[in-house]
Records
---
Amino acid sequence: MNIKSILFIVLQLFLGGMMIYGSISKFETPFAETQEVVDKAQKYLDEDKEHISKLILYVSGMKQTGYFWLVLGLSELIFGLLVIWKKTSLIGGLFLLPITLNILLFHIFLEPDEIGELLMSVGLFLANTLVVAYRSKSLNFLLVK
């Protein structure tokens, strides 16, 4: 086993572990009432903290649907488990690409001042892209003659 293989196994474990960890928190937190969310967002708007208000409305909007936040958590859990196992890492990585892209864009546009979380989301997206690129090499014959 060479260094490259070990590096990609570590990337798979990092990506899968972070997705599983992130999914668990989506099942633990209770959903706030709609009026509480609106009042909290309005409070931040009154304090000229529009970016925090947008953040609250975005996440709470997904929770208020009653299902989307849970579907997102379940998707992160399943795809995170798929990424960890070598045989299904390509499928899990492909399905995780839009989720990690959304996480990255969320932190770029709604939390640009949180540098640590921004770097973590860049790392997640980069790890996801590298895992997909590495695992898809053996299937390139399907796309190129």
Note: Residues 3-28 form the longest helix (26 residues).
---
Amino acid sequence: MNVTRPREDGLRAHEYRWALPSVLLGDGGAGGRVRRSTRDWIVDTAMFLFACGLTFLSMVELDAQNQPVPLMAVEQVTGALSCVSVWLRRRWPVGLAVVLAVLSSYLELVGGAAVVALFTVAVHRPFKVSGPVTLLNLLTLAPYVVLRPQTDMERGWAAALGVAVVLTVFAWGIVVRARRQLVWSLRQRADGAAEEAKRLERERIAREMHDVLAHRISMLSLHAGALEFRPDAPAAEIARAAGAIRTNAHLALQDLREVIGVLRHSAPDGDEVVPDRPQPTLADLPALVEECRHAGMDVQLDQRVAGAPEGLGRNLYRIVQEALTNARKHAGAVPVRVVVAGERGKELSVEVSNPLWARQPARIPGRIPGAGAGLIGLTERAELAGGRLEHGATPQGEFVVRAWLPWPVETTREDDT
């Protein structure tokens, strides 16, 4: 059947994809309207001509046997109708195969169409259906050999030839069906792999947008909260906060434009290709800490390692960035300590800690809302890099985020990107 039929049955796009086995392999219902593609028309025409060719050869042999005129008339009429019925093999494959098998138990000129019908059932139906139909075709050989003996062939040899033809056609149909199932399975795997790649890319872009924008927006919220709750601040301080808001808003828009630019493809003429946005590394960590200090945070950086690969440094930078953003959201102006250490061939570790609040008031002015998605994203990032991440309160009254990332002895250019 044509692959457009599931849409006539009201299937949606995702249901249509999973309904393909029923349509292409014929395991679903039959009897509905058939809309043939160009390939279907070519195949059906070839099958019709094949059935007509076998019928013509049988008719030549039948004329040589000098059969009675009434029998010859019946043979010719049923032979012509059986050839025409081949066009119904897509709509009623099993019914057509059964009717032609029964007729072939005595009539000879329906043999060509019966062979085509049996092949169709073997291709488009599972063995639990095609097996009994094949058995019926084998059983109808017995009355045909007995009632219509061949003048130039013994009955035993005629029966053996008929069995060989039926089994050969059935086996051929099974092979074609198995090949179609294999092709469909490979296509499904390829589609699944493509969908998985798209999902992973969407998750990567979502993490990138969260890591970049959460940092900038938290800066905006921090300075805007200071202006809201300290309207009587000195003019110089208000101007500094307003300038910080303007700067971070501009940087947020710029970062958003760069991240969205990754989603763009080349132009239709292939002239424009948008490169990947520049990624921060471990060398950019002091600048991040200095930016947080300008925003009013008390951050101490203890960086005991340098020269880490770009990919490893980028993951560690994002972890520190998100940890500082969370500290700015939930811990206010408490001191934050960042310790980065590691050794090539072992691992690269980072620890971001800050004292817990002595008490949690019902409403803290300037607090930025958060749902914990950042920590979940950090854990996923660390796991994707082959490391691990822990976070939580310690008995010493601190909230600590610790991450360990593997640092192989030798890294390739691909690992560094």
Note: The longest strand covers residues 347-355.
---
Amino acid sequence: MRKLVPFAVDVVLVVFFCVLGRNSHDEAVLGAGLLRTFWPFGTGLLLGWVIAVAVASGREGVSAARRFDGRAVWPTGVILWLSTLIGGMLLRAVSGQGVAVSFVLVAATFLALFLIGWRAAVQILRAR
């Protein structure tokens, strides 16, 4: 159960990212609108988790999946950030949602802060 906490934190932060974005454009932050904004990034996040576990397993063998630490900045946090960003933007484009360059830059910054930032903070606190 403890292994799912980092995944849950990531989901909450991606939902929060979507809420912030919708709120900044005076759009409804609950209901179908939020789901429409969340699903591309949520799918990218889920794919990132699959990739991160596969990378750990490939490097260290199948038993690595049991030892996998979802709190690691590298490579886990970076994989999750890139997968959420790239996957989210590709799915938004395919589904007819906007992917303006300014939005990509804002999303890249916020998702890095959220998905890598909390992991870095945990590592710093654990090192003390």
Note: Helices lie at 5-24, 32-60, 64-67, 73-94, 101-115, 117-127.
---
Amino acid sequence: MTRVTFYQNRNGQLTGFKAADHAGYAEAGEDIVCAAISALVIHTINAVEGFTAQETDSSADEENAVISFSLKGKISHDAELFVKALAQTLSDMQEEDAYKDFVDVNFMEV
């Protein structure tokens, strides 16, 4: 199961996320859930870095299937909006009967 933890500050702003583990929906190379989550995560990182002036920090550990991403400094509206869109889409996936056993979305105050 892919676990995605979204980090929030005390004001409720999303400040980043960590996605970990493979979904386990199908064999490696054929797992559409894992591919969808990966595409959404990479798209979000690329969108924030390409379309906003937000300072960010990211890391990827392919061997352990972990991607971490954080918004640094003052959080811009646009950067947070991209992260919110990711959170909403993954939460929607989690609610679908076909995918609920393969994606787990959580929120944590930091």
Note: Residues 3 and 104 are 5 Å apart (CA to CA).
